[in-house]
Structure formats: structure tokens, C-alpha cells
Design a protein that fits this description.
The protein is α/β, with parallel strands linked by helices. The strands form 5 sheets. Strands 2, 3, 5, 6, 7, 8, 9, 10 and 11 form a 9-stranded mixed β-sheet that branches. A 3-stranded parallel β-sheet has the order 12-14-13. Strands 15-16-17 form a 3-stranded parallel β-sheet.
């Protein structure tokens, strides 16, 4: 079979193309890869090179009479042309033809003949073509049927023209990215159910889904026709086991999004075409492809610039990391607030006022707001985060475990500070010239409160017992914590009357650090106790 790749208006963005011949004994011909990313397929693939060359020279004389654009409902597109006698192959006896391309099942069903090697019409053995199509589809190859008719399009009915003759079937193999199976497995491990919704044939969808690992653990395959016969309640029952939906229509995507959202699930939808806009809009998160249509991008929430599923998986990972960082910051800040409020509330009853000045309180606020946000904002995106279960849609931001950390640690810090303020023996530890110095004691309390809250940041950073796990991966956290300690020490010596501070002795610093680091083993005990209760 002679196949020409010379100039034509019909072109496909293929990395590899397969031409499926209607001839019974002719083998499948693999087209060579072109230097250009475009492979040009002439609609009349069986005529001689010279005839096509003559046609291409005068292609401007060909007139488009009518055109029917592709949509997912009719699954084909067609163009009626008027081709002058001097501008058409010898075997073509009429000057009016219609070129059709679309779903091979539909195209093949309307053809009784095909063009042989000489451009003559011959009876088409559909069973042979169906067998070959099924064989290719089972290998994950997508098929496009091409036919020609001497009848004109009926734009009112938008149906296939009659008297069609098969030109051929093109097979397109979209190579699966090497990282895609692993990315899907990572998403599934994170509790994300990945469903492939495609307009391809069932056999093609099953082949691709199997290679991607979407049909493990008893996952099923549904077609648009099967989905249409199911009620919403039946779909709800089937959703956990759905792996693939083949021959899908745009309305199938929208319906599936609505049903899943009604189940309380968080739904993400990917798409690149105009027909995907409805589903992208209805989903909780719409992912549009960077190479997709502008309509899809406008309807989406996120645009995946590299068209890669791995980017979606990474988005989930970083999204979870940011959400966990927000929770860590809330625990840290709320613990400081809880401790401060408890001290202020208990002060009048125990005979003391809050011992920090307004300027010192500004530093405390800077520590628990700005610097803490910088510290927790740099938490690393760990792969182990993807092994955790998804957060339910209706779950509160502050969980019971967070409340435990806020209240228990906050009250414990308040207890330690209160005991330091009301215990006379503590004051006698801060002496100058043989006399207890009130200013030195208040300076020590200021440092003690800052150190307590700073060490507690290690507790808030992780729900695990080992507070130092992965701490070196967040260099920003270590830098901010170190900065707080260093600035606090500098304030002590240089603050003077502005901060109401006075320099402390080395023995006093050791005492403050030893008394403040106790918050770490205390929170370890709390975590162990909470974990034992939950188990």
C-alpha cells in the first residue's frame, strides 16, 4: 500500500501513527517518525504520489461547501467539498465529495465499501476490520476512522452522510509517561481514588488503565451507556469500585461530579477541552491542562502547565504540607495566648500583676506571630504525608488533639510562670551585691517566658513523640528559633531602661534554660497519654 505524507489540510499531532488497511491480507504499516511533531495524513491514502502532488499544487481551487464540527455527542466531524476535475484524483468521478473522520465504530458502521490500492471501490469485510480494531484497542491504541462520501452533508440533521466508503483507520498511541504509574500509586496511597474518564473505546481504556494500575483491587470499568441506565443511588453504591469510565460524554462527567459531591467527597476533575468546562466548574478543584482550551482554563481553579499527573500529586502533597503548617502555627500561637490569658486572669487572685511591660509584650507578639509564621511556613513536603488519610470535608481545622496541646501545654506554661512569680525561693536566686534584685528577677522571668514558648515550638512542630524528627530539613525553623534565643539574650544586656532589663549571670542563664526545656518532656508525656486513649 502506497502512503503519501505530502501536503494536506488534514493533520494530526502524533508522535507515532499507525495506518490500518481495510485489506484482509495486508499487514499493519507503521509510519516513520517525522522530524516535525506533526504527521500529515492525506485523506486519500491509496492513490499514487503523482496524483496527490497534482492535487496539492492546486488545492486552493477546492471549495468548502459545508462543514460539521466535531462534538462528543455525534462523535464525528465532516466537510463537504467541491473539487474541480483538474484538481482531483483520476478515480474520483464526481466533483462533490464529503470527507468524514471520527469514532471508528460509527464510521465503519456506515461503510459498505472501501477504496482499494487502485482507487476502485470494493466490498468491505467489516468483521475483519472489527477484529483488527479490537486487537489494536486492546494494546492501548486510540483509533480514528476516515471515510469519504459522494453525498453532501445535511446540516439540519447533523447525521452521517449516506453512501460512505472507508478510506482507512488511523491508530494513535499516546505513550504513558514513565512517572505516571508511580504518581497514581502515590495518589492512591494518599487515599485519593483516581478514575479515568475517557471518550475512547472500552478496550483502549482498559489497556491504558491496566498499565497505569487503575484496575487493581477489583476496580470496574463502566461505559457511558451503562452509566446512563444507572440511577444516582446506584452510582453512589458503585463509586468506590469505579476505575474507568469509557466512551464518556461531557454530561457523564458533570453527573459523576455532582453525585460524588453529594456523597461528601472532595472532587478534583481534569480536562482540556471546551466540553470539559462544565465538569471543571462543578468540581471542588478543577485542573485544566496547560495545552488545553482557554474555556477549560477559565473554568478551572488550577492550570497544570506541563500536562502531567505527577504535578497534581505534588499539588496534593504541598497542599497537605501547607495545611499541616497552618495547624502547627495555630497550636503554637494559641498555646502562647492561652498561657498569657491564664497568667493575666490568675494574677489579681494571687496578688501579682502581669510582669511584662508593653514593649516586652510587643516582642512576645512578634515571636508568636511573625517569626512563628516564618518558622512553620518552611516545613518540608515529606512523602510520608501522602500516606495519611485525607482530611474529611466536615472536619474542623482545630482537632481534639490540637485542643489537647493548646490547653494542656498553655496551662502548664501558665502554671510554671505563676509558680515562678509567687514562690519567694525563686526570687532569692537572683541576687546582686547580696540583695535580691527585683529588676534582675523580672528580666529572668521575661527570658523564661520567651524560652518556654520557644521550646514549645518544637512540640507544636510534630504530633510525634520525637520532636527532633526531620527538624534539620526545615532550616528556616532552626534559623528562626536560634534568632529568637539570640535576640532575647541581646535584649537582656542591651535593653536597659527601654526594655527594663539587666544582664544575667551564666549560672542564671543555665537555670532559666533548664527550667524552660522541661516543656518538651512534659509534652512527650501528653502525647503518649493521648495516643494511649485513642488506641
Amino acid at each position: 500500500m502506497a502512503t503519501s505524507l505530502k501536503a494536506s489540510k488534514a493533520f494530526l499531532p502524533l508522535s507515532e501513527a499507525l495506518w490500518l488497511s481495510p485489506f484482509e491480507k495486508e499487514p499493519l504499516l507503521s509510519l516513520e517518525k517525522m522530524a516535525s511533531p506533526w504527521v500529515v495524513i492525506h485523506p486519500i491514502a491509496h492513490c499514487s504520489d503523482s496524483s496527490i502532488s497534482d492535487t496539492s499544487k492546486k488545492k486552493t481551487e477546492t471549495v468548502i461547501i459545508s462543514e460539521l464540527l466535531f462534538n462528543s455527542a455525534r462523535k464525528f466531524s465532516a466537510t463537504s467539498l467541491k473539487v474541480p476535475k483538474t484538481n482531483r484524483p483520476e478515480f474520483l468521478k464526481t466533483d462533490a465529495i464529503t470527507l468524514i473522520k471520527g469514532a471508528p465504530d460509527m464510521i465503519l458502521g456506515g461503510c459498505q465499501t472501501y477504496y482499494d490500492q487502485n482507487g476502485n471501490l470494493a466490498p468491505l469485510k467489516q468483521n475483519i476490520m472489527v477484529e483488527r480494531m479490537d486487537e489494536l484497542s486492546s494494546q492501548g491504541i486510540r483509533l480514528i476512522g476516515i471515510a469519504m462520501s459522494t453525498d453532501m452533508l445535511n446540516l439540519e440533521s447533523s447525521t452521517l452522510p449516506g453512501n460512505m466508503s472507508l478510506v482507512g483507520i488511523i491508530g494513535i498511541q499516546d505513550e504513558i509517561r514513565n512517572e505516571s504509574p508511580e504518581a497514581i500509586q502515590l495518589a492512591q496511597g494518599a487515599g485519593v481514588q483516581v478514575v479515568m474518564i475517557t471518550g475512547d473505546r472500552r478496550e483502549t481504556a482498559v489497556s491504558v488503565a491496566t498499565e497505569l494500575g487503575l484496575l487493581k483491587n477489583g476496580k470496574t470499568v463502566l461505559t457511558s451507556a451503562q452509566l446512563e441506565k444507572m440511577t444516582n443511588d446506584q452510582i453512589k453504591a458503585a463509586v468506590p469500585q469505579i476505575g474507568v469510565i469509557a466512551r464518556a460524554l461531557p454530561q457523564d462527567k458533570v453527573r459523576l461530579v455532582k453525585v460524588c459531591r453529594s456523597m461528601g467527597l472532595v472532587v478534583g476533575m481534569t480536562g482540556d477541552g471546551v466540553n470539559d468546562s462544565g465538569a471543571l466548574k462543578k468540581a471542588d478543584v478543577g485542573f485544566a491542562m496547560g495545552s488545553g482550551s482557554e474555556a477549560a482554563k477559565e473554568a478551572s481553579n488550577i492550570v497544570i502547565l506541563d500536562d502531567n499527573f505527577l504535578s497534581i500529586t505534588r499539588a496534593i502533597l504541598y497542599g497537605r504540607t501547607v495545611f499541616k503548617s497552618i495547624r502547627k502555627f495555630i497550636v503554637f500561637q494559641s498555646t502562647v495566648n492561652c498561657a498569657s490569658m491564664a497568667i493575666v486572669f490568675l494574677g489579681p487572685f494571687l496578688g501579682f500583676d502581669f510582669p511584662l511591660t508593653l514593649i516586652q509584650l510587643l516582642w512576645v507578639n512578634l515571636v508568636m506571630d511573625t517569626l512563628a509564621a516564618m518558622a512553620f511556613g518552611g516545613e518540608p513536603a515529606l512523602v510520608e504525608t501522602m500516606k495519611e488519610k485525607p482530611v474529611p470535608r466536615d472536619q474542623h481545622i482545630i482537632t481534639s488533639n490540637m485542643w489537647s496541646a493548646i490547653l494542656v501545654n498553655g496551662l502548664f506554661i501558665a502554671f510554671l510562670c505563676t509558680m515562678a512569680l509567687i514562690t519567694p525561693a525563686v526570687r532569692t536566686l537572683f541576687v546582686r551585691d547580696g540583695v535580691m534584685s527585683e529588676r534582675v528577677f523580672l528580666t529572668a522571668f521575661f527570658a523564661y517566658f520567651i524560652f518556654l514558648t520557644n521550646f514549645n515550638a518544637l512540640n507544636a512542630r510534630t504530633p510525634k513523640i520525637n520532636v527532633f524528627e526531620n527538624v534539620t530539613k526545615n532550616r528556616g525553623f532552626l534559623a528562626v528559633m536560634t534568632l529568637i534565643f539570640v535576640v532575647q539574650i541581646i535584649f537582656t544586656y542591651l535593653g536597659g531602661s527601654f526594655l527594663r532589663t539587666e544582664g544575667l549571670l551564666m549560672s542564671e542563664w543555665i537555670l532559666i534554660i533548664a527550667a524552660s526545656v522541661i516543656i518538651i518532656p512534659f509534652d512527650m508525656c501528653r502525647k503518649i497519654f493521648v495516643r494511649s486513649l485513642s488506641s
